[in-house]
Amino acid sequence: MRTTPTVPSQPITVLVADDDEALRSYIAHTLRKDGYTVVEAADGHQALDYLAGVEYPLPPDVVLLDVRMRHLSGFGVLDALQRANVVVPVIVMSLLDDASVDVVAKGLGAVGVLHKPIDVDDLRTAVLNAERVLAAARSPHPR
Q: Which CATH number is 72's domain given?
C-alpha cells in the first residue's frame, strides 16, 4: 500500500548521510517531494560537519545515518553526538538485518532503525516518528 506524501507542519531539515550516492539521492529526492529540506553527506565526517554547522548554517532537525560509511561509521557519528551532548533524532540505516544493529543503535541514542533495501513507507513513517520526538523535545515541559 502506497502512502500519500505528507507535508511537514514546519520546515524540517533532514540530513541524509550515506556513502552510497544512488541510495542517498533516492532518499533525498523522496523526502524533498514530501516537503522536507534535505542536505546530504557522503561520509561520517561530513555528517558531523553538517551537525556542527560547518557545512550548512543550521543544524538538521532529523538525521538519517548509514551504519557503514567510509572514514567514520554511523555508530562513530552517534558516539560523537552522545559525547558532545548533541540531541537530534537519528534514524540508523543498515544493510545488516541483525538484531545487534538495533540494540547498538538504540544504545547510542537512535530513535529508529531502517533495514536496507529501504521501503518508502517505512522511511516516511520513521521520519514522522523522528519529527514527533523532535516536537516533544522542543515543547515546554509542565512543572
A: 3.40.50.2300
| Assigned domain for 78 exists | yes
How much is the pTM? 0.89
Cα 23 to chain centroid, rounded: 14
Grid coordinates representing 10? 514546519
Each residue's pLDDT tens digit, 100-113: 999 999 999 999 99
- Please report whether residue 7 resides in a domain: no
Sheet-wide strand order for 13-17: 37-41, 13-17, 62-66, 90-94, 112-115
Q: How many domains does the chain have?
A: 1
Bridge partner residues of 92 (DSSP) = 65, 113
Residue 90 parent element (H or E)? strand 90-94
